[in-house]
Every structure is written in structure tokens, then in C-alpha cells.
Amino acid sequence: MKITFGRAAALSGLAALAISVGLNAAPPAPKRIKSTDEFQVHDTPRIDPETAPGRPLWEQNCAICHLGGVPKAPSPAFLGMLAPDAIVTALTSGVMKAQGATLSAEQKVQVAEYLTRTPYASYQRPAPPPRCEGAAAQFDMSDPPAAIGWGHDNRRFVPAGIAGLAKADVPKLKLKWAFAYPAANRARSQPTLGWGTLFVGSQDGTVYAFDPESGCTKWTTRLSAEVRTAIVADAATKRLYFGDLLGKVHALDAMTGQEIWAERMSDHADATITGTPTLGGGMLYVPVSSLEVVQPGNPKYACCSFRGSVVALNPETGKEAWRAWTSGEPKPQGTTAEGAQILGPSGAPVWNSPTYDAKTNRVYFGSGENYSTPADDNSDAVFAVDAKTGLRVWHTQLTMGDAWNVGCMIGLGSCPKENGPDYDVAASPLMIDTGGGARTLVIGQKSGQAWGLDPDTGKIRWETRVGHGGTQGGVHFGMAAEGTRVFVPVNDMADTYDGRVYDEKQRGAGLHALDAVTGKELWFARAPDLCRGRRFCDPGISSAVTAIPGVAFGGHLDGMLRAYDADNGNILWQVDTTQPVRTIDGTMVGGGSMSGPGAAVWQGKVFVNSGYGMYSHMAGKAVLLVYEAAK
């Protein structure tokens, strides 16, 4: 395994992504940093983009479309994160077959190598998991998927009848089986259970239907791009919905894996889907985010033209019913010292799963920062829109004047004059019943604050600081709730990689429990620091929390999975997911940092992903782990 660090090692993996894959065509990356390879971890040889034979092929045949010339043509930032064989397949027999017709087989491979930095010969797809036979191959129609968790209910609470795991049995959890995702160092798709089947997506675009008992597969379907969201199962239609790296939403037949429809959610080349689509009121609500935030790492890039939105789709056809924009429409705002045009306002991406409320027929969601000057009142805000029309009912801004992009990390003129602080409303809103017909909308923010809002008006009822926050601090992917008790995970890395100094006394890495009525902190379980100097190791919680009666499960950036006592925060059980385990194919594999999705709990088993080797987190193989209480 090769580990090298260059002069700019202090930059985060987000800045690295801008330099490595967002700018791998003319104009070249800034000379101050050679490439991501200078400060990322690799266990395979890497292609030098400066000398790669695929570079001129890309510039002559592909760049004009993928650098903004054609709407919906994904930017290099996304193409560089695809599996090499996915690019070759697209040019040979897929959506880019016509464009690839003039290239030889060797040239298609060279283009793939240039984009992914991966020698094609070193990319080996492992054999697929064993296929199920007999009873294991059948779907249990008496076990429909429950309407819980992302895609249905963002409180992420699993009732006892579904969890099948008593608090007293949590300390007895043992590994049942494990699966190493092929050619993957990150796993962003949360497992979903239904019909006696485990559904989950992977980095290379494969969706798996596993037998939860053994790990054999009932079917597998490979799509073109990484699955970035939870798989949302619809009991009524027997369909699965999810979003991918390229900004597409897919609908699959849950019984066969056959794709029913797929639609891209934005014309913007850098659009993607990070938050899980939500079913409700006969619609599918899709949050749209982007990676344009990394493009200003090129000082000549005209920043920025993306603006966030939530799109309502007809789940039967995938056709758009309405779109609720966050940021205002970008317009020319002048030029940078390097001569690049400034467009704004922009950004305010939506990278949390929307919350549908049947009582008011509204959809609630939060936005991130603006990407460019001027910062408007739509960034770092919470929105309520009418579920039938998408018309805005109210919006409440939590942090004013927040415009930020990767140029700020690198010290470029593309950094907006506001220069952050990059305090996205990151976690999905939680609608909490607080008694007597009253309700509170609980919000988590990267600022290190939790908020209680009136869901009818957006008025702030309470605010509680749970950490110092930062570019990679505060509350990230998801909170959970059991009744009025809300479990708030906090990241708060020791080094946030944003060049700012934070009050160490406010560092809140770990799990907090708050009262949704008052915002009062009930307890705080500070994350034990077991990193012992390991680079890119942090003890905080970035991944979403999952709750069952009396217990909250949290996956930490250092790879620790812990079960916390909901009454006092004591650790009931823990396991180091970075330690090698034997997978169903007989190999020994260890995971890495845990971020993004959280655990799924079903019939006495806990299903969780380990591995999030990006954005200055620990590298490792991506692995699906299944635990069960010992009898």
C-alpha cells in the first residue's frame, strides 16, 4: 500500500477531488498541487494524467460536451469516480456507443484509464456472490417492507416488532456474515429490508438482493454509476427507488431487479443525488445536490451555475410534476482577479432526505451554502413547500451570509468574499410529536447546532449547541428519535482542514441526546479517541444514527460501530469494523471510516456498511457487515 503526502497535505479530500477529477481536462489544475495522489492512500498503481495517452483522446473527443457543452453530460468530477469498465462499456455498447464508434478498443481503455487514474489491467472484478437456491431464493410476501427510515420516516426509529432485538440482547451481537463490495473503498447506500430480502447498492453501480441469512443473492443488477442513497422499498408496488452519482433516479422491480425507468434530475453537469428520495402523498420527492463546489479549484472556472432543488416525480413513470428551487437564478456578478466570470447567487444544494408530512401535506428539507457571491437568504435554510404544487410555504435561514467553495481551501481568487463558513443544513428534518397535538421540526446543522422549529410557521423555538462545527464538523448525515428524545451525532474532526481555529471547549464529537420539546441536552457520550495517531482517523460520528427501543446505533469515523444506551449514553456494545473479517467468498477484509448511511435493524440482525475512503477519512475496503445476537 502506497501512502504519499505532498506540500498541500493539509487540504481536505474535497479539495483533492477538485484537483484530481474535477479538473482533468483543459484548463489544467493549478500547479501548486500535482494531483490527489500526493495525499491519498492507494493499494494499486495509478495513472499519471499528464502523460496518459488517454488525455488527448479525451480532449479531442469528449471534453467539449462534458465541460458544459451539452446539458446533462456529466462532468469529469463524476466520470473519474466511475469504475473503469463502466466507462469502457458506455463507449462500447452503452449510452455513449455512437460517440465511441470512432475509438478503437485500446483507445476506449485509455480514455477510461485517464479519467479514473486506474490502470485497466489492475482493475479486477471479483466473482459475484453465490446465487441463492431453494427456499433462500424465494421472496417472503408475508414480510412487506415497513415504512421506516430514509425514504419514508426520517426519524430512523425501528419499532420492536420489526427490529426483533431487545436492549438486553444487544451486547450479544456477533458477526453473522460479511460481503466485500467489489473494487470499492466507499459504501454510501443504506441497506433496506423487505420481503425477506436485503437490498443494497454499491460503488460500481450494482444493486444486490441478498438473502439476509446467508448472503447469497436472489438477483443482482448493475447500472452505470455508484448508488449513493438508501434503497427505498414500496410495499404497494413492489418497486425500489434510489439515486446515483450521475444525478439519476432509478425504479427497479423488487422481485427481479429489472429497471422500470431512470430519469436524470438536472441539466447541470455537476448535479448528483446525495439524499435519499422520499415517498409520500403519491409522489417521490428527490433532493438535488452537486459537486460544482469543487470546480472553483480551477481558478479559471466560471463559478457557479448550479442551484439546489427538490423535484417531485410521479413514481409510476418518473416524470417531473414540480420543482422547488432553493437558490435564486445565477446571473453575472463580475470577474475574479484571474479573469474568471462570477455567477451568483448559486448553490444551496439539498443533500438531505426530504420529510413528507401527511398531516399538512407539506415537504420539509434543508439547504447548504451558496457557492458564489452574493450569498442570498436561501442558503443554510429550512424550507416548507406544498406537496402538491411545490410552492414555498415558508423558509427560515439559520446562518446568514454563507458562500463558500473549494477555492477557499486552496487560497484562490475563486473563493467568494464571504469565505464561508460552510454550515450546511445537512441532516434530514425530523417531525417530532411533542404531546397534546403539538409538534416540533428538529434540525441538525454543520455549524454544530441543533434547532427546534415550528412546523407551521418556521419560527425558531429553541437552539442548542452540540459542537464547534466547521466545514467537516457538526451534524452530518442523520439524526434519529425515540419519542421526544432525539439522538444527535456530531462529527467535529480534530483537524477540519478548512484553515479555521475552533473553540476546543465546544468540540462535541460523539452522540448527544436532546429533548425535542425544550432542546435541553439530556446526555452527551463523548466519542473515545482510539486513533492512536492514525492518519485521517477521527472518533466523531458522521454517519446517520439508527434507533430501536432503548438503543441508538452510531458508526464512527474511526470505524467503530457502537450501540448506546438511550437512557444515559453508556456504550452497550461496540466493534471495530476496520479489523479484517472473513467474507462469504473466503477472503479477509477490513472496513474503514463510517459515514453516510447508518445501520438497518431487522428480525434480530444489524446490517451496516463500513468504508468511506474519501474527504480525508480513513481508506479501507468497503464491506457490508451483518451482526446477530448470539443464542
Automatic annotation (TrEMBL):
InterPro entries: Cyt_c-like_dom (IPR009056), Cyt_c-like_dom_sf (IPR036909), PQQ_b-propeller_rpt (IPR018391), PQQ_rpt_dom (IPR002372), Quinoprotein_ADH-like_sf (IPR011047)
Biased composition (Basic and acidic residues): 35-49
Keywords in alphabetical order: Heme, Iron, Metal-binding, Oxidoreductase, Signal
Domain of life: Bacteria
Domain Cytochrome c: 49-119
UniProt key word Iron: yes
SUPFAM superfamilies noted in UniProt: Cytochrome c, Quinoprotein alcohol dehydrogenase-like
Keyword Oxidoreductase annotated: yes
Signal peptide (residue range): 1-25
Sequence segments annotated as region (Disordered): 35-54
Cofactor(s) the record lists: pyrroloquinoline quinone
Family membership: Belongs to the bacterial PQQ dehydrogenase family.
Identification of the protein by name: PQQ-binding-like beta-propeller repeat protein
Species, as recorded: Novosphingobium cyanobacteriorum
